[in-house]
């Protein structure tokens, strides 16, 4: 059932968040991670009643603040100034993470260094000896959101796959990722099985060989 | 609940104390209280805060002064965390990395009299290594313990004379949780209003959790920027 | 978050369900929703509520209708709890007695993803018999598990169209906790206002926890008295 | 150091809460249990800045409501209508009991069936076969308040002591009571030692014999 989009190249950088946005159902409560996941907000249907959660303590987060709207007391999880929508609410950190960890968020979208076929996520630490580790809310989101979607390039700069049989980077969460959105394909993960939902500028067969993974269609 | 100046407010914090410091980046960071703590000269501190300082002010300045032995936080590394980065790479500060939700929940547990709790975050990761785990109803959990402070330094928007606090937007973040988890809680606010002037339905931190209040008349936003 | 009538709101609650019901005595008891649940005929219910009904209305009427197999509560016995008293003495209802703080914290744990927690209440008493205990930092604790509901029926003061809730005075009691702990949360309110009409700083239950809202235009006070 | 008030009889019923009130320091946060402990509020110095907590979700509880002040949404733990003082706040049950169990209340005053010399409290259940048990917040208060004070008559109607070497009624909490206020005496309990602080219309020696307890002076 894979749709192979062969009349085009890979998704451009801004097309990936747009593709994610299409999969978010109306009425969902969603947390968008720092970096490219934040851009998903730009592609959500404003009429779909999707509510954004930011783990520093807010539901109903709006778009990025314009220069004359900047309020240092109103930021997102990336510490960038944002705005408030009608129906927003503020709460403290324990309540914010209780909401997340209690399974009340429908979807979170995160970046990743690696995702395994079994849905393991590695996105918080490269493990390099001189790297200063920082985890923030990543492990809480991985453990708490009902669905964890990942945005990443499918291959690292050196060409090695980032969707892998088993992660080599330190893990953020076990078996939590259900969808992976990349430049070359969108994948659905289920019980260790990887299905290519759509490919862009390549075929399932070609990807399967390059990833050294069995891809269900 | 006594309104005092910042230096008097932090005077009792001694060498070796564990200090909970509010804020998520600059939002909610009690810069005036941190500066007073720096001036007090208290050293060998353990600081619990979400981040490890930004730029050269506030928490970063406290670190730069060499007063902090160890920091417990979720996200030390940022674009402007050069003070921490330098100390860490030089082996001059100890780091305990705690997932943000665990940081909040462990302080809540301290404030709520919970001895320990089984938590879903971090299962199977290096941050859970050596910790007790248990499967409950088919799901794996890690046992986490409370984090208590000798003092909490927090920033709120407004206090009343009963010590009740309200906050502003996402600057609320860790303040209400830290206020419950420390032996002495000190709040920096923009103004102190009479008891009764804050709607009892909208109080976020009841006065029972607040020991000292310091009014810093600048707008909250101006202090942090 | 859909504003519906009470009968439609509770229609999905089936035989054998665990239903969390708000209120401390009459204050905060969602009488209209309980009456609708009674009319629905759903039986074999487990009800979690602080009390076991007062007088002949609301929760007491649900018990009298024979729809409740078991009640989990902290304080069943009251001057006007004759309906429960009669059923209990006749062996027609099962009682699980839980200290009030444990009742609240166990529901909070369910809503917060906590697998279990070590709690100071009840150590050495018959209510802790058979439960795991542990000494942590020189203090004894009992291990307590979450209480989850298939549905929560709560009463709030006002909702907005985003499902945000505010409460009135001590009628707030169990509503905010139960709202987090059930698969489906149904709130009875006196009015529904447009999103944005409730101050975001004063929201007590964010709309993410609320599935259905039923407006009962009588003043909240009048319903219960 | 015991003060023996011999020129008078035992404390009258309303004198006991008044005696408790004298021992509550200015600025304290206090929870008063259902029944006679509630009356302590009537004897507190209004200028002493003592804040009352009621476990159904309020700090800054005021006096009982007059008929024209009754609001069914504003009650105390005994479900009686009360009032609000300036500086009051409302919170939900988990927050209310977190406040209690986290050791933030300075004093709670409770009634009791029995108190043991070691400070064990029995006040929730007679243990009789046909009694319907009800615990409410009693066990949480016993475990959570920094100081647990008890108001009770020193002897049951049949004349048996209620301050005992070991409780025979089901326990509410272990080793939690530090002060016992009765008609015949005020006792301070510490590490298994019972000191008579004051006696009313009787002597320490007489009480010691009647209670079959060693009383420190």
Largest interface: A-B, 41 and 52 residues
Spans of chain B of 5+ residues with little confidence (pLDDT < 50)? 220-225
Helical content of chain A stands at 10-25%
- Overall CATH architecture of chain B: 3-Layer(aba) Sandwich
Please give the CATH architecture of chain A: 3-Layer(aba) Sandwich
Mean pLDDT of chain A: 96
The DSSP helix count of chain B reads 7
End-to-end distance of chain A, in Å? 5 Å
The ordered H/E elements of chain B are EHEHEHEHEHEEEEEEHEEEH
> Helical content of chain B, roughly?
10-25%
Structural class by SSE content of chain A: alpha/beta
Give the helices and strands, then pairings.
The complex is a heterotetramer, with two copies of chain A (217 residues) and two copies of chain B (225 residues).
Chain A: E1 3-5, H1 15-22, E2 29-32, E3 51-54, E4 58-64, E5 82-90, H2 93-101, E6 107-111, E7 114-116, E8 121-122, H3 138-144, E9 147-151, E10 163-164, E11 177-181, E12 185-190, E13 193-200, H4 204-211, E14 215-216
Parallel strand pairs in A: 1-13, 2-3, 2-6, 6-9, 7-10, 9-11, 13-14
Antiparallel strand pairs in A: 3-4, 4-5, 7-8, 11-12, 12-13
Helix pairs in contact in A: 2-3
Chain B: E1 2-3, H1 6-10, E2 18-21, H2 31-40, E3 45-48, H3 59-64, E4 68-73, H4 82-89, E5 94-97, H5 100-112, E6 116-119, E7 133-136, E8 139-144, E9 149-155, E10 158-160, E11 165-166, H6 175-181, E12 182-189, E13 191-193, E14 212-215, H7 220-224
Helix pairs in contact in B: 5-6
